[in-house]
Amino acid sequence: MTSGAAPAASDDEHAAAHPLAARGCADVAALDALVVGCRACPRLVAWRETVGRERRAAYRDEEYWARPVPGFGDPHARVLVVGLAPAAHGANRTGRMFTGDRSGDVLVAALHRAGLASQPTTRSADDGLRLTGARMTAPVRCAPPANAPTPDERRRCAPYLAREVELVDPAVAVVLGAFGWAALLATLADLGWVLPRPRPAFAHGAEVVLAGPGGRRLTLLGCYHVSQQNTFTGRLTPAMLDAVLARARVLAGAASPAEGAAGG
Ligand code: SF4
Predict the structure, then answer these.
(1) How many angstroms separate the Cα of 63 from the Cα of each of 54, 59, 93, 213, 247?
(2) Which UniProt keywords apply (predicted)?
(3) Ligand 1: which of 34, 44, 45, 147 to mutate, most ligand atoms within 8 Å of CB?
(4) Per the CB 3.0–4.6 Å rule, which of 18, 60, 127, 176 could disulfide with 225?
(5) Beta bridge partners of 237
């Protein structure tokens, strides 16, 4: 016998729908608050929490964040830095994007040299770092095993980046690596931006100007990822990173740090 009532949505269905609420976020603070409550990807939820329980020996006395990591920095940044995903013992530990690992050290030192960060180091969420005119984010907000999100996980997380791009409305996106490049292009296509065909390929130093809805414009700058794999081998040097950020500053209108709104 059936009751005739519609079945209640399962916890899994509620979790899977969580990212879609990003569209309704009125500002970056609301978006950041939404992100941290997400459990839409079962594999990544399990991984981020397992890493947080087991911990690396050097951090065994620390409480890991072990949740999704929102973007960090100026909510109206002219320069948006787009990475890949939080590192297991970096942002997944500290709860702040590009914080607590070597990749963050390299990136934030360069942002400081470019006049976009208040200090050259990024150690913990309460270390006082502030970005002015810049914001750091990623297309996937949970630490993935082997730094490798699946295509489904990237698609599930996409509404957060999409809404962040709409709300921040940057002039320039410095995209660190091919994964972020493809993810940002897919997100822009979803938002109705006009993309060249074939889609522009990632390369270090690549520069692509895109047109979006309402007359928006965004320049993508390709940059090798600040991973240890690239920085230890010299594939990405501090000078190369400085050159990309200098170009970003020029394209962003070269506003002085004092002219941007501070954020964190
Ligand atoms: S990766 Fe994104 S969509 Fe998946 S659980 Fe984390 S925040 Fe949610």
Answers:
(1) 11, 8, 7, 43, 39
(2) 4Fe-4S, DNA damage, DNA repair, Hydrolase, Iron, Iron-sulfur, Metal-binding
(3) 44
(4) 176
(5) none
Nearest CA-CA partner of 32 in 168, 145, 156, 155: 168
Find, among 157, 129, 116, the residue nearest to 254 by Cα.
116
The answer as to whether 263 is a domain residue is: no
- Number of domains into which the chain is organized: 1
CA–CA distance, 34 with 40 (Å, rounded to integer): 12
Given a cut of 50, whether residue 195 has pLDDT beyond it is yes
Instruction: Report pTM.
Output: 0.92
What count of residues does the chain have? 264
> Does a structural domain hold residue 260?
no
Residue 19, ligand 1, Cβ within 6 A: yes
Give the model confidence (pLDDT) of 103-148 as tens digits: 999 999 999 999 999 999 999 999 999 999 999 999 999 999 999 9
Any domain includes 182: yes
Atom of ligand 1 nearest to the CA of 39: 5
Q: Which amino acid, one-letter code, is at 30?
A: A
Distances from the Cα of 236 to the Cα of 179, 231, 247, angstroms: 16, 5, 16
CB-count burial class (<10 Å; 0-12, 13-18, 19+) for 63:
exposed
The answer to whether residue 13 sits within a structural domain is no
Q: Which domain holds residue 129?
A: 20-254
pLDDT tops 70 at residue 258: no
Q: In this structure, which amino acid lies at residue 62?
A: E
Nearest to 222 by CA among 166, 182, 170: 182
The verdict on the CB of residue 86 being under 6 Å from ligand 1 is no
Residue 45 sits in a domain whose CATH number is 3.40.470.10
Which residue has its alpha carbon closest to ligand 1 atom 4? 41
